[in-house]
Design a protein that fits this description.
The chain is of the alpha/beta class. Helices cover 35% and strands 20% of the residues. The strands form six sheets. Strands 1, 2, 6, 7, 8, 9, 16 and 17 form an eight-stranded mixed sheet that branches. It has a four-stranded antiparallel sheet with strand order 11-14-13-12. A hairpin with a 2-residue loop joins strand 7 and strand 8. The longest helix is centred in the C-terminal third of the chain and has 25 residues, at 495-519. The chain is globular, with a radius of gyration of 22 Å. Bound molecules: flavin-adenine dinucleotide.
Length: 572
Amino acid sequence: MQQTYEQHFYDVVIVGSGLAGQRAALEVAPFARTAVISKVYPTRSHSGAAQGGIAAALGNVDEDTWQQHHFDTVKGSDYLADQDAAEIMVRDAAQVVIELEHMGTPFSRLPDGRIAQRNFGGHKYKRACYSADLTGHVMLHTLYEQCLKYGTKFYNEFFVTRLFMKEGRCIGLSAVNLADGKLHSFFAKAVLIATGGGGRAFSITATAHATTGDGFALAYRAGIPLEDMEFMQFHPTGLYKLGILVTEGARGEGGYLINGKGERFMEKYAPGMMELAPRDITSRSEQTEINEGRGIDGKDYIYLDLRHLGKEKILERLPQIHDLVFKSLGVDCIKEPIPIQPTAHYTMGGIPANLDGQVTIDSENTIVPGLFSAGETSCISVHGANRLGCNSLLDAVCFGRRAGKAMAKYITGASMPDIDEEQIKVSVKELDEFKSRKGEEKVASLREQLQKGMMVRCGIFRDSEKLSAQLADIRKLRGRFQNIGLEDSTSNYNFELMEALECSWLFDFSEAMVLGALKREESRGAHSRTDFPKRDDEKFLKHTLIYKTDGEPRVEYKPVVITAFQPQERKY
Ligand SMILES: Cc1cc2nc3c(=O)[nH]c(=O)nc-3n(C[C@H](O)[C@H](O)[C@H](O)COP(=O)(O)OP(=O)(O)OC[C@H]3O[C@@H](n4cnc5c(N)ncnc54)[C@H](O)[C@@H]3O)c2cc1C
């Protein structure tokens, strides 16, 4: 099948129009020809679903400091975060939030007019700046307006299929225009990957349908390692069976977690912080209650109870949640408790990048020229083994902004790559081959088997047996995937093709995650091994790097940057 294609040339090409991608674009677009490519319409990026807030030690409510935010973040990470990176993030936080406010983000207010702040898990003080429970939505819209103002060119509903690498440098990429099926190639001095997470590898997840780990796989296939992939965050409050998120802000406003015996069980696990313990601990506690038969009616869910907050507070601070819970489950949370269970939420690991978002390839942090990454796809490692709530929006805008600045500088000294016909040919061939598969297997069925396996064997509690079985299964499923059959041969909006490509990313994403988890024989943050229940700093205070090879992926490690805080036992 003959493909038509167009070629484009930009100084900077950004993949992903979530908060990280757009914040980067805004920094570089005034100085350089900048394109943003997104497989969904920009304001539909998953960032727009963020409800609870963005963390910054503004000290508007409490006596907060960036130093305390730094400590909370490092402790929350179970000491795996790189402390230099975490320090930059928390120090930049106030400015990043104030800039957003000046651009027009309508944050909720205190009576005296300053930005309001609320509690979030693992943070000692009220630190989350929010806009009711629509924080990501308003930030994303504000950034989109600004990007348009500065002339960023958006390629909406374009699906990136491959990175172009030449002699170790990234020179561009290929992308399908979903509207007509044509393959385009983009050449650029700098490419930024900001494609969000991979929550869709799990059957119960709070993440959008488009969160299929694309950027991880694009980089992995281009020879870049993936860092610390074993750390997947399970959020404590997903709607039962649906996984849809109820923001931690609901507990920040005072909501309780209740088991089948009517107890606030967090008293047993984190008496100091109760429901506002970090997510790894809270989700594990819930799962323990469920596993030991203390779910509601002995089943696999528990309750989030907001009734005592009262109608006025619920409707003022959590209006979207009220609406969402009612529409999804028919539960009125003013009068009834909400059935919830842990849900796959956030990918802590990702593409290794330095403090300027430049992608690195080894334990010496050697830079890959022309390639940058920011947001959930990247692992600059500010979250280590467990991210604190509200630190992710901060990570996305803080390091999006830094990567944008760094790219603006980088392109002044970089040459424009030549067209590389060979790369174009390979990407055309690859897509044609994919489209022509006429086997027996169905993508939806393979994906479902992958997701169920990941949930059960690579979920909150893991062990060697389950992980090995899952790794073997991923390989079997991937083998069967070679034999898929695509029925839709149309060019415009061929979602069957898109879903098949997404499923192929999920295999790479999951393989790196399961392998990292299998090799890490300890329990740290969100990675809980029942066969190795203790943290082992001697052997595993280090970052995992997983490289794709033609055979078994290669596993290497790199040291953690420790500056201000020596690892301690983590208690709440
Ligand atoms: C329901 C929910 C609530 C959350 N609430 C909070 C919160 O209150 N506070 C907080 O700090 N964090 C929160 N998070 C986490 C946070 O929202 C995300 O980590 C963050 O927004 C990710 O931003 P991003 O820019 O990295 O990616 P995203 O916003 O996920 O954007 C990814 C972009 O990549 C594009 N893309 C992906 N693959 C391709 C491809 N192959 N080709 C072209 N484009 C592609 C997509 O189109 C999209 O534009 C929440 C997450 C969820 C799921």
